[in-house]
Design goal:
The chain has 472 residues and is α/β, with parallel strands linked by helices.
């Protein structure tokens, strides 16, 4: 057990008087926060809670302030159970691991997926409007409001970490003049209220059929349409045009039940802010991906450029920005990014050691990996789970909160990633990965699905999942 894990456990047990059964270290997000899942066995708290450690005291305090303020209006944010005296550690409600982005990547745009998006937009409107009531924006850590200066910051972020990193040639003086013109042209007063700022699928968790929000500490006062644009134009989600329009209309109809606004002005604001968000995220992909070498940001660049290309005709109509339009045309050309094509296809199996044994490698190459899931607590031994599988929400919740499955999977990911990266470099075409458990219904199914999701998001490679004991 690490020193930080010991510190977390001691803090929780000292304030609550309850013993921690187990602690799992969770993957870091884009920031520097460290997350842990504590497993408990006491009626005073749920079976698991999340602990966060960060030395960024200002950020911690603002998140805590936002959460307490939002909970006054019963908004969909986590309950905070305790904050240590230094405000470096806080404990909050656990909404599980399944994000809206992971859901859409795994299942596509089914009726259920669209329903979750609609729930997210309803909850967003509630948070924007009610969260704005008596909110103290002087506490914001980045800026108290999204203003012309912040627009310039986002535009220059794109210039510095995308255009310059990729050596795109441009007239600096003219581009700066156009950036200033954009910052003065866009109307930020339409439906100005609490702006989440990074409202995207990773920060929306699916919990017991509802959606909940995390990571809103970058929030400020700003136009409501920015958050809607952030969600609907998220690169990895790749929302089809007709569904995007359906969701935008749905959001506006619900917002109209909370406040009065001009729909035509809102649509104009949405278009302007969609463009700004596309530009901002390309800067983020450049910084996190091209500089920090984080694979899942690199894999988002092409979809981000496709978004921008499909939006070109809607970019600030009537605004004279010829240099920026020329640049956008260059970067959205088909072969601009020289995407690393990989012939690698990964076959992922779940199976039963008892009824089947090791699956055959149909590629003829042999090798690959076989992981034994039987060291993880078996949901199949619990009566209510026996007829379910590792794709049912109740089983997933059990594996995430009551077992060390996710901690174990992080080790699996690290091992498999090394081989995948090597195989891509060597232009190999096949890799087999199998997960076995007793019946091939619960642990192995969940593990296989999670690896497929991880590889698709991180490397963008082709995967095929075969649940050999199932008919799905």
């Amino acid at each position: 057990m690490s020193g930080l894990e010991t510190l977390i456990i001691n803090e929780f047990e000292n304030f609550s008087g309850i013993k921690v059964i187990n602690i799992l270290t969770l993957p870091q997000s884009g920031g520097e926060r460290n997350y842990f899942r504590l497993q408990l066995n006491d009626t005073k708290y749920p079976p698991s809670i999340i602990a966060t450690f960060s030395n960024n005291i200002q950020e911690n305090n603002f998140f805590i302030y936002c959460t307490k303020h939002f909970l006054k209006f019963s908004l969909c944010v986590p309950v905070i159970y305790h904050v240590n005296k230094d405000a470096t550690i806080y404990f909050q409600e656990d909404f599980g691991n399944l994000s809206l982005l992971e859901y859409v990547v795994q299942y596509g745009f089914t009726d259920n997926t669209i329903s979750f998006y609609k729930k997210a937009l309803i909850n967003l409107a509630e948070l924007q409007v009610k969260g704005n009531i008596e909110f103290d924006y002087s506490k914001c850590i980045i800026s108290s409001e999204y203003n012309a200066g912040y627009i310039l910051k986002d535009l220059n972020y794109f210039r510095e970490f995308f255009l310059d990193i990729l050596n795109v040639k441009y007239d600096k003086e003219i581009l700066e003049e156009e950036f200033i013109l954009i910052s003065k042209t866009i109307d930020l007063s339409v439906c100005s209220m609490f702006m989440f700022r990074d409202f995207q699928g990773r920060n929306i968790l699916i919990d017991k059929g509802d959606v909940k929000f995390i990571d809103y500490q970058g929030g400020m006062k700003g136009p409501a349409a920015y958050d809607v644009a952030s969600l609907l134009w998220q690169a990895k989600a790749a929302i089809p045009k007709n569904i995007k329009e359906e969701l935008l209309t749905y959001y506006m109809n619900y917002l109209a039940t909370l406040i009065s606004f001009d729909e035509s002005k809102f649509r104009k604001s949405f278009n302007e802010l969609s463009f700004l968000r596309m530009i901002q995220v390309l800067g983020a992909y450049g910084f996190r991906g091209l500089i920090e070498k984080k694979s899942h940001f690199i894999s988002s660049i092409n979809q981000g450029l496709q978004n921008l290309e499909s939006f070109q005709e809607s970019i600030l109509p009537g605004t004279k920005i010829p240099e920026l339009r020329r640049i956008i045309k260059i970067i959205t050309e088909k072969n601009f990014m020289e995407k690393r094509k990989s012939a690698l296809a990964v076959t992922i199996n779940s199976f039963s050691f008892i009824t089947r044994g090791y699956p055959e490698d149909s590629s003829g190459n042999g090798g690959g990996f076989v992981f034994d899931c039987r060291g993880i607590l078996n949901p199949g031994r619990i009566e209510k789970f026996k007829m379910m599988t590792g794709r049912d929400e109740e089983v997933i919740a059990y594996l995430q909160s009551e077992t060390q499955m996710d901690k174990w999977l992080q080790s699996v990911f690290e091992v498999v990633d090394v081989t995948v990266e090597n195989y891509i470099e060597r232009n190999f075409s096949n890799l087999n990965v199998s997960f076995g458990c007793t019946g091939g219904r619960h642990r192995s199914v969940y593990a296989a699905d999670q690896l497929a999701l991880h590889l698709k998001e991180k490397f963008g490679i082709n995967t095929s999942v075969n649940h050999l004991e199932q008919n799905f």
